[in-house]
Structure formats: structure tokens, C-alpha cells
């Protein structure tokens, strides 16, 4: 299991101003779990991953893996990356062009001083696992993008690492292949039960693969939770906005379960303590904005107009206006209300996430 | 299937180990070595220029006398003026030739230009001393073939050309440096987006207007840089001023330094004072070149894209430009080599005639092959160039790794230190190293080791350039993934960096090898009878007036260098293209 606590890094820009890359980053990854650091570029997720790898030296904090301290500012410990015994897949895959497939995968075992026959068995086993065994003798430069990605994974797994680090491993693949490799990666991780830290800026990748997600922004972790928690109960406007699409409706609380907004009074259910006159924003996912051609029963129902619609194949996105507000709604293509026609909007109070405005 | 990892048990904390870190040993050794060979001779040269000559009875003391002697006379002003005239003339001639050829080759539809480009490396294998001597054989007032032939044709009683003049010096050195101008300007034209030119053409400009108002304007940083490089090279050049200038009393800085050292008693202090002046000129030149090339990126002309420029159709004029190629190739390769070849088959030097044709002999070759010191000389040259190339490339690979791949503070200083020898004219470097090891006796003066140190110092900047351009292309994740695989720094360097650096390493190694084997101006102050090299033997044969023997040696030398370059190109093609 991996534990990161109080991690703090900064580096100097070419102009000499310090930039805080990670601030007080703390999380633990239980044995065999896949943990994702998700965030926009420059949020500190890669810095955090590289600090765990030992490729960067943090300013403060502590990192332990299975009770072995690999970095600790207070104890003055910093283990060099080549002694940590972690496997890592880089964004560019970093497949060595002067070696063939077998040699690439065998390198970690060779430098560890394993015997020749042992190396052969282990390398072939791991190449079989990523379905590259038939290409073992091929030049690494002759591999396709997907094959390079699998080779990078094989090289990271061959030494049976205590921890697997993945730095945007799918971002260099085309869309179709990315979807396929997503399943592949998930299958492999779940089968091997290897503790994994995954870095990505792609929220759908994070939701699909992870046991747990940490959403980061400006060097800080905004929220840690399961994919479902992150998506359905975002803790801040940033998380709601970054993970998936959402509608924000600003307003002022009029009681513990009611918010006055431009739409009118919205009934909400929330675990937060809501006080009168608190300024809040309500986040509603487009698929939770229900549309009806006839007035439905229940709370939070308003009459609206269809402003615009976009046909996406498996769904139709509607832009509807309620008074001065525009809401985005995702509907099944069977709803065929025309642009300009009237329509009814309903928001389930359970799906209205109340976020404090800072 | 790899099974789930069996986790080894580690102690709760792991203290850093205090065993020797080889990484820092190697890095430290390379940094110390580089600093030592680049900085020490310069410092000593400066120091020596403020000292009186040391004799058995009188100790050296501080003096400004060398500078007073060097700069106090009208003689020096004349020296300075001649040097500048010579260098300016040479660089302009080389630049005009090189640029015209580069433009014709890159931007026009001149026939056979691919062949010309392939041939353009041949001049590089003719050492400067042989090129100069062959032009003496072609255009000296007394024995020059061109003079005699033209006199015969036109019935003149005066020789047409006098190679022993400032104009003659400029002609020979300008021709000799024109391939360098050609290569530099070719690179500049290739880096320029041709759509700038095409849009000028679409706006109605003709070929000359496009050339003058767009092409040359946009490549001006490259033009100035090229001119400066050529100027620095010309003011440093030793062979041409020594062989063509000195017989007629035309002195420039390099030949004046040589004269000051090679008289009895030698005036090392005076030579140093001249050398400091020369060093000041080259330093200013190199400084502006580096300023220009770092600013060059501001011009939108340089991008990473490979352009396939549309070529300008010259119409009937393309046969004229093709003729220029032919004439140029005659002047720079065919005539010089032919005259050497001709004279190498003579018993005594004679101008081509039917009578002389009857006297063809292999005697000069026999003489050279039985030359007492030849095996040793060849061995010395080969060992020195092999050793220098290997040391230069390995040391600079570490240096440029530090400069390119790390964030160690002060790495820019290291880059500058390793590039420092670039400002040393060969002769000045030889002088500086000579002075240092004369004063600091570590037992290498007069041995082959002092030559090796000199070569390594002189060619280190070239090695650094070759390695840097290769190193910049190595993605840092290729290294990091080796570290994550458990490889130490040494293993990573040996198994990942060096193999990936191979194209640059090989190209630089070959280049340093070739320039080392041709080296004369540094060796001439450092050699001893035991440490003769090929270029020195040629020099000595010339001093002895053994022209036919010299020609035989020259022909063999050029042929050997030519095959070396062919092998080099073959190796480059075989191993150089595996990247990506």
C-alpha cells in the first residue's frame, strides 16, 4: 500500500519565481487498488506521480510504500528512483529505439542481475500477458502505437513491482484504440491486483478505470472519492465542472432545503448545513434535467422553451430557456420536440447538488 | 502471467548509502578534465605575455615590454592592417562563392546539381597545406603551370599571376574556405520557408528581386554569422600566410607569431603578445556569432519543418550555372589534385610537356615509402587522430549530458568553458600549450602526449556541437524509464544514452578524426623528431624543396583521406538513420 502525506513541491520558473506544483498532497492507496490523479494540465498531478517515482525531489512530505519509507523530509530519506523498484509507463512510452521488443522488456531484469534463463521465462510470460509474445524479436521502432504502449506496460510489470505508476498512458493513442486499451488495462490491473497510481486529464478514463479518484487543481487535492461519489456528489464547483458536464444555477438559500434562484425557488436535499442567506450554486448534470411535453407531477417543475438542439446519435442535447436561464439537457432521441416549442423542465431535488460559493 | 508480486520486507526507514557514487566520479572527472585543458593554456598565455624571457642567469620578471614591443611600433599597425585585409578579402571571396553555389544548388533547376552536392565534400579532404602548395605549382611566377601555359598562348614575357601576393593569398584561402561557406549557406537556405519567396514571386517580383529583396534579407542573420565565422577562420589560418606571404615579406599575425618563436633566441613573450591580440579578435568574432545564432530563432525562417521548396526555373541560364559548377570544381579539386599527381611522377619538378611526359617515374613514391620515419609518422598520425576523436567524443558526451539534461547550477559556464578553445587559433593554442608544459614540467613536453592534449583541446568544441544536437533529440523519458527499470546512472549512460547518441557520436568522431589527421598549425610548435605527424612531414619536405616527393606523399595522403570519408559516409548511412 502506498501512503503519501503532506507532499509539497515547488520549482523555479526560468525567471526565478517559485511555482508551487503540489501543496499538502495527502492520500493513501490500499493494496491492489487503482488510484487516479485527475486534473487539468498544470494541476500538479504529474509532479506528484514523479515525486512518488523519485524522478523529482519534493520539498517536504513523506512517501511510504508497504511501510518502506522512500522519501521523507523529516527523516532526510530519499531513495533514488532506480532503487525503489516501481514500474512506470511514461506518456511517450519511452521505448528504447535501439533495442528490440524482447531486449526492452528484459532490461529491468538484466540490470537487476538476473540469470539469462530466468530472464527469458519471465519476459516471455509478461509479453504473453500483453499479447506481444509473437513480436519478441521485432525492432521496437517497428511497433504501432498500441503495441508500444503494451510493451511499455510489459517493461514496467516484468520486475513485479511493488507499485505501478502510469503517466497518461493512453493519451498518445487514437480514440478507438484508447477505448480498447482502457478495458485491457483495467482487466490486467484487476487480474494482477497490483497497486497502481494513474495520472490523467481525461475524466472518462478516470471514471472507467479507478477504484478511487483524487481530483486536483492548482497543486491541491480538491476531492477524493469513488468514481460515483466524484460524479454524483462533487464537493466543489471545480470538481463538478471538470468531471463531466453540468449546469450551474446560482442562488441564495431561503431555508435548509430551498434555494431562491433565477428559475424560481428550487427544492433541494443536501447533507450540508444550509442556512438562510447562504450564497450557493446548484449543480445539475444534463442527464438529470428531465424534459416533458406535458406538465409532470412533483416539485421543481417549470415551463421552458426549446432554444437549440444537437443530435448526437445515441442522445439529443437540448438547450432550453427557463425565464432568463438556459439549461442543458441530455435526452433520449425519442423526444422530438421542435425548436421554439414549449416544454416542461423538472429537477429531482435528490439530483440537485448544493455547492457553497467561495 | 506474472503473479502478484511477493513484497520484500524493508526496514521502516532506509538510510542513504555512503558507497562511492560512480555517477559523480565520472561527471567530476570530465568537468575537471575539460576545465583543465580549456582554461589552463589560456591563463598561462596571458601570464607569459607579461613576463621577460627566462634565461640561465636571469629570472623572468613582470614586464609590459612585450606589449610595448608588440604594439609600440608602426610595424604592428601594418601587421594588423595586413591581417584584416587578408581575412576580410578571404571571407568575402569565400562567402560570395559559397553563397552563389548554395543558392544555385538549393533554389534553382541547375542540371546535375545532385552530383555537385555529393562532390562538395571532396574539397574538405584536401589539407590546407597541400592545397596551398598545389596552387604554388599552378600559379607561382617562376614555375606555375598556368602562368607558363598562358604566357605561351598569348606570347607574354611577364607571368600573368603572382601567387606570392596579398591577392594570391586571398585567392587561395578564399577558395579553400568556400566549401565551408557553401555548407553553412545551404543550411540557411534549407531552413527558410520557401513560401516567403513564393509569395514574392506571386506579387510579381522577378528572380533577382526575389533573391535580393526577400531571400537575402530573411537569411541575413545566417549571412552575418557565416561572414564572421569565415573571417575568424581566415585570420587564424597559418598555411597560406606562411607559404605564400613570408617569401615576399607579407606578414600577418599567425606568421608573425611563428617567426617570433622560430628564431634564436625565440621571443615567446612577443609571440604571446601577438597571440593575445589575435585571441581578442577571434573572441569578439566568436562572441557575435554565438549571439547571432541564439537570436536567429526570432526570425520566422527557422522551423523544424522539412521544406520541399519549389525551384526557380532559370531557363537557358541553367547551362550557365552548370558551367559555373564545373569551373569551380576544376579550380578547387581537379587542377590542384592533377598538378600534385603530375609532379608526383617526375624525377625533378618539371612543367608538363611531351619531354617531361617521357620522364615519368615512380621514384618519388619509392622515396616516400622508404622515407626513414614514415611508418612512425603514419602511426603517430593515426594514433593521435584516433585517440583525440575518441577522447573528445566521450568526454563531451558527458559534458553535454550535464548541460542539456540536468538542472545543475552553473552548467552554462561548463558549456562555455568547453567551447572556449573555439576562439584559439591553432597556432596560438600550440603556443599556449608549449609555454605551459615548458614551465610546468610533468614530463610530457616533446612527447606524443602533449600533441594529444593539444588535439583534444582544439577539437573539443566540435565534439560538443555534434553531441549536443544529438542529445537534444533524446527524450528525457527514455532515460527516466531506465532509472525506473532499476538501472544506475552509469548503466543508463552506457546502455541507453550512448547508443541513442550514436549518430552524432559517430559523425563527430569521424569529423574530429579527419581534422586531427590534417592538423598542422598546432602541431608545428609542439612536435619533436619522435612525434612527427603527416602534415609536419609535408611541411618539412616543402622546406627542403623536395617538391616531387612531397607531391607523392600528398597524393597518397589525399587518397587515404578520401577513402576514410567514404567509409565514414557509409558508416553514417548504416548506423545513423535508426533514430525514431
What would your notes on this structure say?
The complex is a heterodimer of chains A (358) and B (580). By secondary structure, chain A is α+β, with helices and mostly antiparallel strands. Chain A is 23% helix and 35% strand. Chain A has two domains: 2-238, Rossmann fold (3-Layer(aba) Sandwich); 246-356, OB fold (Dihydrolipoamide Acetyltransferase, E2P), CATH 2.40.50. Chain A has helices spanning 45-53, 101-111, 116-129, 145-157, 175-192, 203-209, 227-232, 237-242; strands at 2-12, 18-29, 34-38, 60-65, 68-72, 77-78, 87-89, 164-167, 196-200, 212-217, 220-225, 247-255, 258-261, 264-267, 279-284, 289-292, 301-311, 316-322, 325-331, 342-347, 353-356. A six-stranded mixed β-sheet of chain A has the order 7-8-9-3-10-11, sandwiched between helices. Chain A has a five-stranded antiparallel β-sheet with strand order 2-1-4-5-6, covered by helices on one side. In chain A, helix 2 (101-111) crosses helix 3 (116-129), helix 2 runs parallel beside helix 4 and helix 3 (116-129) crosses helix 4. Chain A is globular, with a radius of gyration of 25 Å. The model of chain A has no long low-confidence stretch (mean pLDDT 90). Chain B is built from 24 helices and no strands. Chain B has helices at residues 22-48, 65-71, 74-107, 113-119, 128-139, 145-154, 166-191, 195-202, 207-218, 220-236, 239-245, 253-261, 268-295, 317-344, 354-357, 363-369, 374-405, 411-419, 426-439, 448-471, 476-484, 489-518, 534-543, 547-575. The two termini of chain B are 30 Å apart. The model of chain B is unreliable at 1-18 and 296-306 (pLDDT under 50). The chains are: A alpha+beta (358), B mainly alpha (580).
CATH topology of the largest domain in chain A: Rossmann fold
Main sheet summary of chain B:
none
- What is the terminal separation of chain B in angstroms? 30 Å
Please state the average pLDDT score of chain B: 83
Strand fraction band of chain A? 35-45%
Low-pLDDT regions of chain B: 1-18, 296-306
**What Rg of chain A do the Cα atoms give?**
25 Å
